[in-house]
Write a sequence for this structure.
């Protein structure tokens, strides 16, 4: 999305879950309040398991 950040609000832009964790850990100790929203989707299984149902597709 390409919309400007709200005026007067500190916005931290991240791209991965690990960046989000690091940003939160850095920012929260000094915060009086935090409003958070996330849609993390950079995870997946280490190894894909083959199942019997996959053979029937």
């Amino acid at each position: 999305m390409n919309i400007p950040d709200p005026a007067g609000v500190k916005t931290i832009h991240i791209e991965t879950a690990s960046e989000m964790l690091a940003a939160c850990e850095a920012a929260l100790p000094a915060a009086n309040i935090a409003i958070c929203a996330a849609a993390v989707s950079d995870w997946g299984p280490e190894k894909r398991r083959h199942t019997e149902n996959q053979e029937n597709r």
